Amino acid sequence: MVQDLESGRGSYALQDRSSMAAVLSKRRKVDQELSQVKRKQEQLQPIQQALLDSTTSSDDHRTRAQVDSLESEITECFHRARSLAADAKQGSDMYNPRIHEQLTYITENIRRHIEEYRRAQRVFATQLETQVRRRYGLVNPEASEQEIENGVQNILYGDQQAFQVQGMRSAKANEARDAVLQRSTAIRRILEDLQSLNELFEEVGELVEKHQVPLDNTVKNVEETVENYQKSTRLLDRAIISARNARKYKWWILFVCVLIVAIIVAVIIAWGKINHKF
What we know:
Elements: H1 2-53, H2 57-89, H3 97-139, H4 145-156, H5 171-209, H6 212-277
Helix pairs in contact: 1-2, 1-3, 2-3, 2-5, 3-4, 3-5
């Protein structure tokens, strides 16, 4: 039986090491995907700035195509990282604190990179919107602030795909119009990506969070078991001391009883001798 127990322990330890190795392997792959994200973000920033600085339609088309391509690649990296995190969780012992710690690191690392990318994209979208508003006003010089705002919002949300250039249709005005359309398209693309990333952010968090309560309960139960064990140990110690004291008191009582009996016997003997003497 002891041999079977030792065999069972060895099998469990081997399984635990195998599961941990699989999780660590997935963690390395996730780190590689996130490293790709960082590199692509570094490539994306100067291209985004080039789009902001562009003054011709040809440059707008070229740089926006590059921006779209890199943004798609970054989003794909995040989705692959999420799939790797899900694979790491699949079949793993979520109640093993060491494995749970690794999975928590993986998910938090993905979420941190997503948040950094979302923050950068929001800044870029705001810069593009500022340019859209300014150039829309350029091609509509007689429009009021409210008319400009309504026109910009219609374009940004895709309700208006094109607009007429007021007054003389100069080359400069047409360039401005095309710039508005290119930038508004880029903004809509960013907003769609942000929505997708928001969903991905929540999905990654749920990989570990829904197991947090059972794990916390397990830890709590272990702590309560340890506490109860300690209380039981203290009570047992007291019982042992009480038992020792009881044994000590028993001998004292026995001694007193023997002494009393001896005194009684001595008194009886003495009394008998006295009566015999009389």
